[in-house]
What does this fold into?
Amino acid sequence: MSIAESFRRFAKTTARASGHPATFGFAALVILVWAATGPVFHFSDTWQLIINTGTTIITFLMVFLIQNTQNRDSVAMQIKLDELLRAIRGAHTALADLEELTEEELEQLKARYAKLAEVARVARDRGAEDTDSPDVPEVPPVRAAPVRTKA
It folds into this structure.
């Protein structure tokens, strides 16, 4: 088994376990025990350092595990949405890789769909249905900046 596969399994298992109510209960119990031992250790710097260090290490590691899980979930969701676009007749399959577009291109697409929604609301307010799948209105295409070459 590869390192990546081992990490994937570990991250998935850890993410599931960390989201479980019993894990929260255990974490709360650790905090209560730590707080209860405060008077025993006279609320010393070492006593405070133990909880600060422990929580910092756990938080640092959890960031990477959560990011890994979120990345996989995001890719899986994107693939599912792409499949829906592919399978629905009349859907704009060119939208399947929107995450690869520039901010400017995304803003132009957003404007196109905002215009579509505006037209649908006006039509709905006049008594028409807004459940159709009309064509997306045209917006000027994205113009790439000119490429400069060395002379």
